[in-house]
Amino acid sequence: MTANRKGFEPVFCTIVPPHILDKAARSADPALSAPARRTLERDALERTRRRLTTVIGAPAVAAPADAVEHKPHRTVYDAGHHTELPGAKVRGEGTEPGKDATVNRAYAGLGATFELYLEKFARDSIDGSGLPLTASVHFDKDYNNAFWNGEQMVFGDGDGEIFLDFTIPVDVIGHELTHGVTQYTANLTYFGQPGALNESVSDVFGSLIKQYSLGQSAADADWLIGAGLLAPRVTGKALRSMKAPGTAYDDDVLGKDPQPADMDHFVQTSSDNGGVHINSGIPNHAFYLLAVALGGNAWERAGQIWYDVLTGGELAQDASFADFAKLTVKAARTRYKDGEELESVTKAWSQVGVPTE
Fold this sequence. Notes:
By secondary structure, the protein is of the alpha+beta class. It is built from ten helices and ten strands.
């Protein structure tokens, strides 16, 4: 399958899947259901705004005159619990940390994401050309999500009942910004298997950013997405587990993690854009299996193979899991010849039931 890109089509991507919020919205406890319902309503509105912006065109974002090549240019805004973006500027590139821990975490997370892409993949910001990184914090009231809207990052504070501050896990920040990388490269369609690949790529690089920040090897990492985000009353560890999809949470309010780990348990659904946050567990698990098989730091070889596919120009917008898998085999062979990387990537996909032949 060949690539077919007719211009970038940025989409509205949230870290919390709709099925979690749908479940919480049906709770008999209004302290749980009300914030979930408001978040679903806000997400629907933002999604519509994104579609309209895609049709009429978004304003171009240029680096400021004082921007330095291969250095981040970060700006953090405070939305003040309102919904107009970006809000009031509270921190710019190179300024000292303030008293607001949320602002400081957002700033650091933007930097950690920029650093991994530059240092390990020679990519200058998410567009490869020094795109300024913008984030707004304290979005809306009790907003239970974080999102990339095609132009910037937005973080809610959570309701304190189900979710805590969305700037806490650095992998959430890396995940959402990686939607921007995908937007500027493979531009994967946000539906069905290509949509699940879109989500999986964000989980993969979000996890790599976390591991890189903590200096963790593949063996040391927890492979959880959103660890530290769930409030104490929730029975669970995170939003997703790449190591063991389907085990991240099992809660009386949120339900049980529905992610499959292999194609035998692929979920057919019309919700969540054809299950993009659910079936992403399959390619997530394949990456985990590859990373631990190769050992060492996951961003070095496993991450390089995934990055080569994402940015190589051959990945079609409507790529299936099998299309992606075949390209990872090709990328492994191109970069590492017939070494253990090729054998390990083929085995990883075989273990999750995705063909590479």
